[in-house]
């Protein structure tokens, strides 16, 4: 059973410091993110109107959020008329209780899962376990994480921090069907997982899924995936329960066209994902009972922030993580959230609310690479700065507020003029060996100067404007 993220997040600096000691982790991340990054760049370059598509994706998402209540009500009406059942959940507790009740009412003791990100957000597996219900992950990477009893460290590739040798050892130890002669060949590893999961697909009476998109005009849910496990989960069991964040709503089918071009290229570097599944209510083949839970869990309060709400446009492609220098060195676990990387640094603090995950907006260099690759043009650096200012204004200590006020004055036009004159006058002293030694013992400069020398000031005595 994988561990959940319930509880107060552990500060990013503390976890990052530990992660930086793991050289194997950095090697694995560097190799994986470089591969995905290069694949993405190749297929994106094939699309001549890529920038227009990005802008269209951004505009559709922002327009959908502006009329969110209207689209949600339309979705509920259409899905219900097609024979499905719609539930509303204000938070993770309510969502978990709805799923548990459905399972207990139908004497379910084991469920299979696909697209588990939203269920990880609400710690569904842990809640079901309290009632004796076992949840089995069916996505290969999610299965690896569950067998290792760890958190996902990447939105799209949850086991990105593990190499093939580590996965091979894990399979031999945890999967009964795995042979002791199993090698680290991708084909052998995939076949072992397939044999193990096929039994679960055929025996499970209930499935729990997420969804990539929900189309309001017809009450339709959409899942895109690469392995086929999603199609198995969505069609074989008797009961299907889907949990989606309310921001997944798209007004019309025409809107979907844009995202089916943006998502696979940005996520896995593919022109089109291998499997795309749609279902409306309980029409057609498949489960005889279909539920959807529309989850708030902090999204409404995020929507109220006129700057931060742009984060809700995220389509969970993870392109921002694959280019982030901070993520590449610290890994996903350092973020203490199901949403790691740059997008996690702006989504998690907003979903959890004021004072929670307050170190995450500072877990960035503000280099802007995440903004450049985001398929829906979320201005992540702008939101990071906004959340930093908000955190300092609302939750910083008196000392931190005083330091920021002094910094604001010092870096203003007049402050810089005084600083210029000061550094010009005392440049030899500032760059001296004695000052280098002193700086390594001063409270604030100690951390900065631990790996750097104080540079020789290059400012002249002239006035600067």
* Contiguous runs where pLDDT drops below 50 for at least 5 residues: none
How helical, in percent, are the residues? 40-55%
Structural class: alpha/beta
Mean pLDDT: 90
Q: How many angstroms separate the termini? A: 61 Å
Largest sheet: 6 strands, parallel
The portion of residues forming beta strands comes to 5-15%
Order of strands across the main sheet: 1-10-7-4-2-3
Per DSSP, the total helix count is: 22
Beta-strand segment tally: 10
Name the overall outline. globular
- Computed CA radius of gyration, to the nearest angstrom: 25 Å
Question: What does this molecule look like?
Answer:
Helix content is 52%, strand content 11%. It contains 22 helices and 10 strands. A hairpin with a 4-residue loop joins strand 5 and strand 6. The longest helix has 23 residues, at 23-45. The radius of gyration is 25 Å and the shape is globular.
Give the tags.
52% helix, 22 helices, alpha/beta, 465 residues, 6-stranded parallel sheet
Layout: helices, strands, pairs:
Blueprint: H1 12-19, H2 23-45, H3 50-66, H4 68-81, E1 85-89, H5 92-105, E2 110-114, H6 117-121, H7 124-130, E3 134-137, H8 140-148, H9 164-174, H10 186-203, E4 206-209, E5 213-215, E6 220-225, H11 229-235, E7 239-245, E8 249-250, H12 253-267, E9 275-280, E10 289-295, H13 299-303, H14 319-323, H15 325-330, H16 341-352, H17 369-373, H18 380-395, H19 398-410, H20 413-430, H21 433-439, H22 445-449
Parallel strand pairs: 1-10, 2-3, 2-4, 4-7, 5-8, 7-10
Antiparallel strand pairs: 5-6, 6-9
Helix pairs in contact: 3-12, 9-10, 16-18
